Amino acid sequence: MRIRKYDSGFSRRAFLEKSLKGVAAAGVLAPLWPEIARSGTIDKVYPDELLSIELYTKGQVKPGDVITADNVEVVKDLLDPIAYRQVKEMGRRINIVETTTDVTKLFPHEYLEATLRNAGRAKFDANGNVVTDDGKPWIGGNPFPNAQTGEEAFANLTMSWGRHDESVYGVRDWDISPNGTLSYQYDFIWAEQNTVGLVNKPSPYQAGAEDKLRYQAVWFTSPTDAKGTAFLNTWHYDQRKFPELLGYLPAFKRVRNFPTNQRFEPLVPGITIFLSDAWAAGDPMLTWGNYKVIGTKPHLGAVSGNWSGKTNPNWEREVHGGPQGQTFFEDYKELVPEVLVVEAEPIGYPRAPVSKKRVYIDVRNMMFVSYLTYDRRGEIWKSFEPAFSQYKDGDAAYMDGAHPLWSWTHVHSHDVQTNRMSRFVQAKQITGGFGPEYNIGPSIYDKYLTAQAIRRFGT
Questions:
Q1: Which of 67, 284, 304, 362 has its CA 20 to 30 A from that of 162?
Q2: Matching Pfam families, A to Z (predicted)?
């Protein structure tokens, strides 16, 4: 047990001092990343009250408890404003679990190894793009694990969304209307292939594609009137450039170019998800600007215990809350000892309906745990709240090579101005027989990520 000089107000004072000094270095008792490199844990980095929700709340909340409207005031400072409103006014509940101190459970294994191996080698070039210390494209892992600025924090989100070289997600989405009824239900595939920063290959670069960052596609398999609708993004490595965006609409039976800077519109009717929302970094990083860290704080984040592969064979989730009891997924949150709160503005979009975004980033793995957007009047508009987990549920596990898979499990995308909720899961199988595929190699490109591929799926 540590000496109790770290009383219940120590962490609050430490974070306040950081904020006043403009310091973003992670850790309270010790620097975070040297300790992770040494031991793989955060036990010696934070005082007990930041590793235990029970100590932080002076016994009012403990692991196994459920946050409801009756006790949400106790943890109000650990929630973003929309999550607080969801619990207080809409019947959402949040299950509390232990804080994860073993950092290996917060990453894909190879990605964490690359982060440690390449630490200290990233910098920004004269144009603001991430390069290595010898001026080459990035070589894998988080480029700035100990991010000091908003730009560095967002580079960690941008350079590898899903933190796998290749990812194919089978997504099942439910869109809930303001009166709590189901208005739309979609199945779609989301595919990503990074072309630089590869961590599962002999080379960190896909030969001939070093000028790209990623290929990304989405196409719908259900319902019938949306089936075949598909979009393909080709991202340039230069983050000043907009991706090339192709789309296939079954009604027109052809692939066509779409305006690539219109990234704040629903993909299909009824859904609240925009291209801009992906991973809180769905746009090229340098089309946003005025990045700033506005604070550091503890936060509740859904980062562990959220895979239900043993209890639900298709990895779906129980629902609750809202007028009809189906607005929210059941999810599990832990006390994240420290998040960076980062804001940015859309400088590359003169007609953007968004004035700024605010992102809460877990410093342990530099992944976002909450993301808010504000309209042009400065009013809160939407939240995009993810849940992550190792894919391990008791004695059941879904493996990524020799290790349990780490990935996102589900998302709440809530437009609070219209009170429409899109909630979606990464399912084991969706309509058409599609399901998850990870690190599958070059075959993903021809299968999913070309104009011919989205036309083939559309027909």
A1: 67
A2: DUF1329
pLDDT in tens, 191-214: 999 999 999 999 999 999 999 999
Give me the domains of the chain, ranges plus CATH numbers.
Answer: 1-459 (2.50.20.10)
pTM tops 0.70, yes or no? yes
Give me the pLDDT at residue 3, please. 47
